Amino acid sequence: xxxxxxxxxxxxxxxxxxxxYRIAIEQSNDGVKILQDEKYLFVNRKLVxxxxxxxxxxxxxxxxxxxxxxxxxxxxxxxxxRRARGEPVPSRYEVRHLRKDGTxxxxxxxxxPISYKGRPALLVYVRDITERKCIEQxxxxxxAKYRNIFExxxxxxxQVAPEGRFITANPAAGRIxxxxxxxxLIKGITDI
Length: 192
What we know:
This protein is an alpha+beta fold. Helix content is 41%, strand content 25%.
């Protein structure tokens, strides 16, 4: 008679651990994929949704270029080749991706080399950053509008630090106060 209690407990602990990892990956707000030999071996539910496919089976086994916007493919392939040679490459970078319907979107990748079934592979987290990119673009446009108003105003506009030193001034402020440029005004007056 052999006591297999310890073996059963170990197997149960392993199943529980695998279940925790499966749930974490499947419920992630980021797309998750495993790449090996330049092909998709695994993708989670979120990645399937993000790329507007119907199932993971439509992606698994396909070449990595399938989901990368043509304008970014060479850069992604270059980063992967350099990583495979052991050269320093970013572990996080942005790339345009391609959905099943042909539309593109911006994503941030977090990439980690792993061993999968005894061979080198990549674990990749994909975060859709479309909304962030739209907000950044709106901010740039707003800043450009403000800068245009500031620079071209006929009124003198300036900002002063609490100790009385000019921080910024527009060209009109410089002219009104008798300086050739706002930079000259800022350097010339240290206490208003």
